[in-house]
Every structure is written in structure tokens, then in C-alpha cells.
Specification:
Chain lengths: ~150, ~150
DNA sequence: TCTAAAGTCGACTAAATCAGTCAACTTTTA
DNA sequence: TAAAAGTTGACTGATTTAGTCGACTTTAGA
């Protein structure tokens, strides 16, 4: 159930860019603040650019900046684009469903669907703005519960 | 955010063993019902045995069977033992915390913690018995919600 | 118009993990 | 004592991951 370093580092970069909205930042500057090597960051930023989350300016004084407002950048979508489907198994994926030989009647699929849906619930309701403003609340202390209506 | 085939196949095996409680099942029989090759199942069952979820009997008439009652087999624990921590990132892991250079003040960690906690909430509240009796309810149709108290 | 600063692109690699195979071995029962 | 079954360890092939490297293009400003 892991997030790879690519996804993690992409989110780090978006956060740093969000903290400097309006200003372009060079790969080197982003690298300093995210602690990701610039060679690797370059790859990730290029991918974020292709996905239209960021844009860039070449030449002297160039660099990267956010393409959309932080409130319009959905974390679920970022994770999905960089890491693949949110579902732990293809059979429970909404965006990239893969049939399984054990369907129907599989007693595992409902579990994977539930896991997928709760992950999606959290990630798709979080925007970059939420992260920037520390609006993600912890479940610790049972502030949150999942319950059946 | 994937479950590997090892975790999936281990759960399949446990389900099949749960459906035949009291009877030993050979690797070959389990293989037929889970659609996992017996060479690979052998590896997985051995691991499940070391973890004390199943037990085995050698020789003619031998095979595998559950070691505990299905109601005592916690799916979160099975997944954790076979796949590693439930948390998507080490910094948010409860059972295997790994420090990160960006702590404290990291704006991502609360998100990973929330994801970990919701995954744990689902998986740790599910037992093998729940799976066998199809007691895992789907989030579809918004039967469930996550909310802040 | 030249130069240095920046992003862009493609090829390559080293390590890790995963999924799976195989052969030899031990235990047990009939 | 033979056959059925689990046990063990070594091995392999494919894939993914996390980078590295070098050559190239674009741009601003002196």
C-alpha cells in the first residue's frame, strides 16, 4: 500500500510551488526545499507539466510555476496520474478496472472496493490548498469516524 | 497504493481454508480454488504457517488448515504481515515509523496519516469471518461516510 | 550577436522487488 | 516400504524504480 518516491516528491514540489505562487522557481530552488536531487526533480516536473499541473519558462529568469490555483489541484488526481489507480487491486479500480477470474462471487472484491473508496474519499476531497493551509485533520484521537448510514 | 499478488493470494488461500474448516486441504486443492500455481502457493502457505495463521500436517492425508477461528483472524494483521505497514509512507506508519528529513512542519505527513488511519480503520475492523459471510459493505451509494466529529 | 542560465529530451543503468520455478529432502500413513 | 504430502533453499526472469548523464534548445541581457 505504498506511495512511491515519485508521487511523494511530486507533491512536495507542488507544495513548494504553491508557497511561492506568482514567482517562477528554478529546479535548483525547488530541489533545495524538497531535498530531491535536481536530476530527478527535472523528470518529475516535466511529467507534472505534461499533466498540466505546472507550467514553465525557459532561459534566464526561467523556471516552474503552478498552472492552476491550489484550490483547483486535486490531490487524488495528482496521485492517480503519477502512481496509477487509487485502488489496491485492479478488480476494484474505478478508473482502470481489470476483470479477475474469480469474479463474480469473489469474497475479497468488496473489501478492496471499500478500501479504494475510503482512500478516494480522503484524497479526492483534498486540494493543494488544503495542504498549504494545513487543513488536513488527523484521525488520531478519533476526530473522524467511518460509519454506515 | 497496490496490494501485491502475494497478499491477495494469501487472503484467497485463507478464505478457501475458511470455507473448509475442520478439513485439511492439500496445496493442490487450494491451488484449484484460488487459481494460484501450487509452486507459488507453497511459498505463501509456508509464510502463513510461520505467522501462525495456518497449520499443516505432513504425509499422506496431510495438508493445511486454519490455526485460528476465522473471527480471530484480523485482515489488517494479515495484510501488514505479508505486505508491510499499512501506511503509504514510513513517516505515517504506526507499526514501523521511519523519520523523514522534512519533519516537523511537513505539510504532507498529516495527509499520509489520515490515509493510513482510514485504511487501518477498514482493514483492522474486518476479520476472515466477515469476508466468509460477505459482511463487508461497499461504500458505493454512499452507505458510508467519513466525517469529523 | 554572443553568452550564460535555464528548461527539454532521450538513452542508459544499477538496484530492488516480485513472481514464479525447480529439485532435493523429510515426514507420515497405509 | 512406497507413495503422498509438506519443507527447504537455490535459482531465474521480468518489471519497476530511482535515478544519472550528456547533448540540445530557448531566452534574456550585456
Amino acid at each position: 500500500m505504498k506511495i512511491s518516491s515519485k508521487g511523494e516528491n511530486a507533491l512536495r514540489a507542488l507544495i513548494v510551488l504553491g508557497q511561492h505562487q506568482g514567482n517562477v522557481m528554478t529546479i535548483e530552488e525547488i530541489s533545495k526545499r524538497t531535498l530531491v536531487t535536481d536530476n530527478y526533480l527535472e523528470k518529475i516536473l516535466l511529467q507534472l507539466k505534461k499533466l498540466d499541473f505546472v507550467t514553465s519558462k525557459r532561459g534566464i529568469g526561467g523556471g516552474y510555476l503552478l498552472r492552476k490555483k491550489p484550490s483547483e489541484i486535486n490531490i487524488g488526481e495528482v496521485v492517480r496520474q503519477l502512481e496509477g489507480p487509487l485502488s489496491p487491486m485492479g478488480c476494484a479500480s474505478v478508473t482502470k478496472y481489470e476483470p479477475c477470474e474469480l469474479e463474480p462471487g469473489c469474497q475479497l472484491k468488496p473489501l478492496w472496493s471499500l478500501v479504494r473508496d475510503t482512500i478516494a474519499l480522503v484524497l479526492e476531497h483534498t486540494t493543494l490548498e488544503d495542504l498549504l493551509e494545513n487543513r488536513v485533520s488527523s484521525l488520531k484521537g478519533e476526530d473522524f469516524v467511518v460509519f454506515k448510514k
